[in-house]
Task: structure prediction
Amino acid sequence: MTGIMKGKRGLIMGVANNHSIAWGIAKTLADHGAELAFTYQGEAFGRRTKPLAESVGSNLLLPCDVEDIDSVDAVFDTLKKEWGSIDFLVHAIGFSDKTELRGKYADTSRDNFTRTMVISCFSFTEITKRAAAIMPDGGSIITLTYGGSTKVMPNYNVMGVAKAALESSVRYLAVDYGSQNIRVNAISAGPVRTLAGSGVSDARLMYNYQKRNAPLCRTVSLEEIGGTGLYLLSNLSGGVTGEVHFVDSGYNIMSMPRLDELKV
Ligand code: NAD
Result:
């Protein structure tokens, strides 16, 4: 362990289990000395998150459903009371009705479009605003996005549209809070086998396709995403804000499948 995050406190939102991207980032931050608080959505996820939080020495575990703004406010009230201030925040929250994560984007319903945007995009703005209010000495905030925001990924549909809006939010929020020395960035992760990831139809096919066609010829690990989380949330990235940083084995730079892959 190195102490790069020693003396820093932050909130992790989006751990569902030990496969969650938020957990990969949390574990890395804790390994480097950070003090963590966690939120969980609903009792079932709470039961899975509790032992994980305890394993990194955290006893601040708070319920939060971003569709219920009172529960979001309660989280930040508690943090203010317990800690006074925070230094960083991880937003790793996304949801869309999986029956619409297949087929045509054009078939997205109005209800699911709205719900997907509120949970997967607007919650980041609401949370950043509340986090910034308890970052008197500046801070760093990250969210998680996916390349389906700028290029069409089959079945990703409305989530791609929400991620495009999320990435744009990152840029606007970076300007809103830049003068307070609060940095706002996104990690664009390659496909990872998680609960949310498996909600997208043909997820396994997409996972294997990216594995074969990314420059590094593999997908990415939670530890690798965690490492980039550590960089973006620590002073190492002090001059970086408003960025979407890919951690995808380089897949995003490709314009066609690898030639060796086409020849087999
Ligand atoms: P996950 O299922 O482990 O995490 C998703 C989290 O979102 C869960 O903890 C869930 O409780 C939370 N959530 C959903 N609706 C919520 C609500 N109303 N209120 C509060 N929390 C809510 O899956 P994950 O893949 O680790 O997802 C984390 C983030 O990473 C998401 O934004 C996802 O879109 C993004 N992402 C995932 C991949 C991937 O391939 N898995 C790739 C790139 C980006």
